[in-house]
Design brief:
Layout lengths: L13 E4 L21 E5 L3 H4 L5 H20 L3 E5 L10 H12 L3 E5 L4 H14 L3 E4 L8 H8 L7 H12 L43 H13 L16 H14 L24 H5 L5 H13 L5 H25 L27 H13 L4 H15 L3 H11 L5 H12 L16 H7 L20 H12 L1 H5 L5 H8 L3 H16 L13 H12 L1
Parallel strand pairs: 1-2, 1-4, 2-3, 4-5
Helix pairs in contact: 2-7, 3-4, 6-11, 10-11, 11-15, 12-13, 13-17, 14-15, 17-20
The structure holds flavin-adenine dinucleotide and iron/sulfur cluster.
């Protein structure tokens, strides 16, 4: 049944579209806003939580931040046309809602900055076109590099490398440079000083707990709504404490800079089971929703370095993530979309293991990373890259399926940042645009960087046998499956040489166990009594069939 049209609102000059990841009061879309003639348009729609299964935490974060933005704009005396998720007649798609709004307000012009996802960009442009309303796309000043500047950077280069882009950005924005314009400390990159593990003793105690942001009345209403509307989606809303306003996002940044930044670089790659936050900043979601400006973040970190409160290696390591990686992945996204999402350079076609939706697996590292992801909507970079991402790569999961999973389960997921990280950096499906070689490793890497293996029934050193670590088995199987392709990659020379040394019987034992893992839906053959019950029953059913 179609919704009854609302009364026509006359005389709207600009209808300014603000999407859930565009909550920037200083956006160019609001430049020249005249309260008497212009209006802001925002909509909550189920489609954005359902086109990929979105975590309840992610949905709640977006909706709560949107409602806070709406209220702040109304407090400035601006008109905000806002469609709530349960508003009568909500078509539950953004294009559908925009079409409805355009029919009602008939503005002279639609104004917005580009959406963070190709699909929406196209859908909204099509809605404007079919309503016959001109669309003015304004440049997005949140980012430090425009898609056009990235184009120029990429032009004529055979191969893109983040490190060169990052150096250009440091120079262009004058970040961490000495008086001569050279990098502070005499080098661009302090990676070799970073990346320690916690060792057997674990992280120093007490760990600096991140600041919490208790839900206010607006957030509590959203939590109830999301729980009711998406009961089967993953995510535990009872512990929701993300910042949802620019003021709280700023407090979260200050909390990080004061308490965790000094040890960020050192422990940025370390994992400790049961400790989801460690020394990470937890500001990606606030930045991606544009509650927090990356310039503010970079300046705050640089200040700590220059005043000697934070080691240069930690500050540089952090700034590289924001000024380097974050801008770089956005450049890659807009340079290569729309075909980028279709890439599958390794021809991977396995389904996503069902335990990615439950966390129920005998593999301790995956159980921990998946468990915290599904509950909190958060895992840090190395958990995403070298645990959940690595396993999917080694198993040979279809890159589109794992991309959809990452886009749904993390609070900070917006396609421009998620897709190049997942499909490119983690799955090597873009054939080397994001990463110069596939990020592959055996379980020994996870053993070195975490405590997960100590409580696991598998042995990270073994590739075959009852207790062989599935990561290790699948690592060798990956090299065997892609031996020819990898031979052409200089950076894989050592690994390719090692695989060439395997005897015929070692090869067939590895292949047999890898196949058994695939047939078991990504789970190795079970040893009775060692798996979570559900997984054990599945494994038994598989054995019988
Ligand atoms: C497979 C995969 C998927 C990812 N998906 C997302 C995503 O959907 N959204 C997202 O924001 N990040 C994504 N990342 C990058 C990174 O994992 C997260 O930005 C980070 O874990 C967020 O937590 P934090 O704020 O505590 O980050 P910190 O560890 O404190 O890092 C600081 C900041 O640097 C930026 N950053 C760090 N690494 C990257 C990177 N590779 N790309 C872009 N920005 C980076 C983030 O803004 C982050 O807040 C993904 C990485 C991988 C390997
Ligand atoms: S042994 Fe293998 S599966 Fe188990 S925790 Fe270590 S890396 Fe993960």
């Amino acid at each position: 049944m179609s919704a009854r049209p609302r009364a026509v609102v006359s005389g709207v000059r600009h209808l300014v579209v603000v999407l859930g990841d565009q909550l920037d009061a200083g956006s160019t879309a609001l430049d020249g806003f005249e309260a008497s003639r212009d209006a802001i348009w925002m909509a909550e729609v189920a489609g954005e939580s359902e086109h990929v299964v979105s975590s309840k935490v992610r949905t709640a974060l977006f909706l709560s931040a949107m409602r806070h933005f709406r209220d702040a704009q109304r407090a400035l005396g601006r008109r905000v046309e806002y469609v709530e998720l349960d508003s009568p007649g909500n078509t539950q798609t953004l294009a559908g809602e925009l079409a409805r709004a355009l029919a009602v307000s008939r503005p002279e012009r639609l104004v917005m900055v580009r959406a963070g996802e190709w699909r929406l960009d196209q859908d909204l442009a099509a809605a404007a076109k079919s309503a016959g309303v001109p669309l003015e796309l304004r440049p997005d000043r949140h980012f430090l590099c425009t898609p056009e500047e990235f184009h120029e950077h990429a032009a004529g280069r055979k191969q893109l490398r983040m490190e060169f882009f990052y150096r250009e950005m440091r120079r262009r924005h004058g970040v961490l440079l000495d008086e001569a314009g050279e990098p502070l400390g005499g080098q661009w990159n302090f990676d070799h000083d970073n990346r320690e593990s916690f060792g057997k003793e674990g992280p120093p105690r007490p760990l600096p707990a991140p600041r919490r942001f208790a839900p206010d009345a607006t957030t509590r209403a959203v939590l109830q709504l999301v729980e009711k509307r998406f009961p089967r989606h993953p995510g535990d809303l009872s512990v929701f404490d993300w910042p949802v306003t620019p003021e709280d996002a700023q407090r979260a940044l200050e909390d990080f800079v004061t308490h965790r930044l000094p040890d960020f670089g050192r422990y940025q790659d370390a994992i400790w089971c049961g400790e989801p936050w460690l020394y990470h900043s937890l500001i990606s979601a606030a930045m991606n929703l544009k509650l927090l400006d990356p310039r503010t973040v970079v300046a705050a970190v640089e200040r700590e370095v220059r005043t000697g409160k934070v080691p240069l290696a930690a500050g540089e390591g952090f700034i590289r993530q924001v000024l380097g990686w974050r801008e770089y992945v956005r450049g890659v996204y807009w340079l290569h979309m729309p075909d980028y999402v279709e890439r599958n350079a390794l021809g991977a076609k396995e389904p996503l293991p069902s335990f990615y939706w439950t966390g129920e697996t005998a593999m301790s590292c995956l159980r921990d990373a998946l468990g915290q992801t599904l509950r909190l909507g958060y895992a840090h970079h190395i958990q995403r890259l070298m645990v959940t991402g690595l396993y999917s790569l080694l198993l040979g999961v279809d890159p589109k399926r794992i991309h959809e999973w990452y886009l749904g389960v993390y609070v900070d997921a917006v396609e421009w940042v998620e897709l190049p990280n997942t499909l490119g950096m983690s799955q090597y499906a873009d054939g080397g645009v994001m990463a110069s070689k596939p990020y592959v490793a055996t379980g020994k890497y996870i053993q070195r960087m975490s405590n997960a293996c100590a409580s696991c029934r598998f042995d990270p050193a073994k590739a075959t046998g009852e207790d062989a670590c599935p990561f290790t088995t699948l690592y060798w199987d990956f090299l065997l499956r892609h031996e020819t392709l990898l031979r052409g990659n200089q950076r894989m020379a050592l690994q390719v040489k090692n695989v060439a040394r395997l005897s015929a019987s070692e090869r067939s034992a590895i292949r047999a166990r890898a196949n058994a893992i695939r047939v078991g839906g990504g789970e190795p053959p079970a040893e009775e009594g060692t798996l979570p019950l559900e997984t054990e029953l599945r494994a038994k059913a598989f054995k019988r069939s």
